[in-house]
Amino acid sequence: MDYQKAIQNLTDILIDEEKFNEINKSIFDAIDTDNSGSLEKEEVETFVKGLLKGIHSGDGDGGTDLQERHKIVFSVLDDNESGEITLDELGKFLRELFKEQIKELQEGVEKQKYTRAVANDQGYDMSTNN
């Protein structure tokens, strides 16, 4: 995986307000199946189930876990606890999600560097032992 490219892409989205708003609106519109202008619990549940489908396919308790994940996702998204999610609330969530993804990707970069350094050291050690 090209961690640096993924980090750059997410950073570009966060920096470019127009690009971020376009992505936020596209995601919102995809979830807002009744075109009401807000996301109801059922729409978010359908989206979350579709997004997480197959993750626990071999797990007998997957249905319970999906329900729990939906509750968590909805409570995080529903910032003002209105029972519906607005475009702004989704945007706040996506910003935080993208920032967290950047952090995780940066950790991946560090792990790659470490793995390469260890491999190089082992290669170097092996060649000096011959």
From TrEMBL:
Q: Which domain of life is it from?
A: Eukaryota
One Pfam family from the record: EF-hand_5
What name does UniProt use for this protein? EF-hand domain-containing protein
List, in alphabetical order, the Gene Ontology terms for molecular function in this entry: calcium ion binding
Where would I find the EF-hand domain in this sequence?
19-54, 65-100
Q: Which keywords are on file for this protein?
A: Calcium
Entry annotated with the keyword Ligase: no
